[in-house]
Amino acid sequence: xxxxxxxxxxxxxxxxxxxxxxxxxxxxxxxxxxxxxPSASEYVKPQNGDAQGRLDIELTPRGQATNExxxxxxxxxxxxxxxxxxxxxxxxxxxxxAESALKESLKFFEQNKQSDDxxxxxxxxxxxxxxSLGNRxxxxxxxxxxxxxxxENLDYSKCFFFCxxxxxxxxxxxxxxxxxxxxxxxxxxxxxxxxxxxFLTDGEPTSLKYQNKDxxxxxxxxxxxxxxxxxxxxxxxxxxxxxxxxxxEKLGRNDVTMxxxxxxxPGEVNYxxxxxxxxxTGGRAIQANPNSLANVFTDISKEFNSPSxxxxxxxxxxxxxxKVKLAPxxxxxxxxxxxxxxxxxxxxxxxxxxxxxxxxxxxxQFTERGQYVFDNIKLIHKDFDGNTMPxxxxxxxxxxxxxEAAPIFESVVKINGNQHHAPENLVKMGMQNNxxxxxxxxxxxxxxxxxxxxxxxxxxxxxxxQPMPEGISLKSQQLQTSINGSLTGASVQAKTLNGQKVIxxxxxxxxxxxxGQFNPAKLNLKAIxxxxxxxxxxxxxxxxxxxxxxxxxxxxxxxxxxxxxISLQVILExxxxxxxxxxxxxxxxxxxxxxxxxxxxxxxxxxxxxKGLELISGNTIRVHFSDDSFKDVYLKADFDIFETNTGKKxxxxxxxxxxxxxxxxxxxxxxxxxxxxxxxxxxGDNGWKEFQPDEPVPLPADSIGNVxxxxxxxxxxxxxxxxxxxxxxxxxxxSEINVSPNPIEVNAGESISFQIEVLPLDASDxxxxxxxxxxxxxxxxxxxxxxxxxxxxxxxxxxxxLVIEAxxxxxxxVIVPVTVIDPYVALEEVRFKQTKINLPLNxxxxxxxxxxxxxxxxxxxxxxAETVSSAPAIEAVEKDGKWYIRTEELGFTTVTVTADEDNSxxxxxxxxxxxxxxxxxxxxxxxGRW
Length: 930
Prior knowledge:
It comes from Rossellomorea vietnamensis. The chain contains eight helices and 74 strands.
């Protein structure tokens, strides 16, 4: 025994534990860190069997890709068209959902393809499919356009004879092997490209053609005749599955990476088989449901379209001369005594590599006891251009195979979904944490050891430390179990160890053993977890179990990694018939039509995992993210109305003088959204017109009065065709008021009319308020009949102002001076226009006023009291109150006039009467000369 303990001590000194090796070169290229360690410090060889050991391998990609150039890609869609694809899943025919997902992938590749990319389509059922009906067909195709044509027929079916008979393109069994072998033949051996397969199936393989024999499994548990006899069902099933794995292995050997998509309810497809097949190529298997299938296809397509680093871990077993063997359940394959484990990492431009971490397990068998030093573990990889880089050799890893060692725990770690969803298809409903986003991690623990028959001991202080990925949290501190007694004293709690979030499960009980018998012989513990936000293809890190053994002191070893992945989408339902909104790990929001699973719109408001979806005001989806921020995606457009000249924003139903415009303030989410508007006013309806949401839209220039603006959208995240409606009132306000006459003069006791002109002529409200600044009636008074007839009455002499103001709030007003004049004007002066006047001799009566000037000219009394001539040459006569002069003879005279107003107001002028010949014309007076 002393010798064994000594060996154990030596082992603890020399065996390799976590060793990191980086591929980073001097140029700063993306790198891969990898570590290799045994799952336990020692493994025991049974007397009549091989020791079972395991190497745990962890790969972590580092860095980013910044160059968008990638190698050409060859992509083959291997698509299940078997009879079960006509069944419904989530209320939709499987073939319909698969068709929609394929179309989304083709759409992506069409938008992002390079000229030298190649695309193939391989449908399969019991063999590679060749089906046709009329001009419709489902068969292998090459090129995106041809594949799109075939895709249109994938869910096609037709009734005959009143649906007593039906033809459906989904028919037949499920043959993995022939379809994958056919897909492999599509890759050119000499072509320098990245090679990918997307393998979609909804069921386990049931058909195989091998060595001229047909192997077929039926759903009733029987097999088809092979040769002339029936075979055992399990044997035929194993043969079919083994050949499927061999086909995948061939893909891996030919550098083809396969992503398998299990599109079925949990239990309907052998996910473990698909995972093994995909792992052998460096790809992965993914469980999908109707809500996630389109996203799964698109995400895989994006990975193919990105630069990638692929390669393999190589472990040379030659030096062990057959003493170390690859276990039959391995994801690796062996060639020339070298183990090959494939891997592939995608580097989205400027983003984090996918997957973020890869955990590989290599089960080994050891035929003899002793120490095994693995000194030839290499990491092989190709750069973005496909060039094989120099191999990186890992530090030595040592494994001891002994007669006796501390007991260990054989483990099976499982990730379970909930009653609604598998762990790959978890759902968070809106903002709620409930049963839909619940999951559990389950540990089946079996204490095991090869011990001397009389060896007794106790394993105590047993605890499991489970690191937690971001976004996974402990939901309940109550453990569950499927084995009675497993929970006695057990507890679980969340904590942080060395900066890492973990859950720690303490078993709270001891395990006693005698020889190889343990009590209890098996434990089962299940911790209830919760996925907090959207995630994709997340793996739980390996857990470590720690315990103390009364014979072997403190012990620890890693548990197995779980199969499958954890994925979650956030879903918002119930907003519209046949529509579901889905938020994912990239921050993308998708609008999906439920009846066909067709993607109708996508938007990525922020590149962070979606944590919740919330409906706001019935027309907005608030997308919450993992950092507790949020962004709004609008389902209805909104717009602001504003005055074109001032930029003033107008409220609904607000008045404005215009001109006015509107502009979209909230755009509907998604691409290819079309915007339409319509205005309605007293001038009519202008009909729906398309417009650009980034530009302001002026309202028609003739819009006046109540104007209604409606905006609707089509495409993208548009909720419905109901428009958003707003109203404003455009008023033509008064800009000018003109009054005639201006100013106004009126005699006291008299009235005068005046006119008012309100501009513009089409002003919305042309009414005015008319007032006098003085009390109405003191100096003047105003009267109007309401028909546009206005008058001012002079009351008494004085000054006033007529105020005319627009009633429309424009503030326009005019003030017109009003003068009321006393009607009597005193005469101040009368004078002759000239001092010497010549008149011809004739018999005419000439009015004396023709020769006079009255000052002021508007004097009230301009009558003359008398007119007197000093000589007989002119005679003054009065007729009808007016004075006239008449020439009587040649000669001179002085004529004097006296005003009736005041006899002191007089004037005189000299008149000479001359012959008509001297007068020269009929002018009644001529300036004379002495």
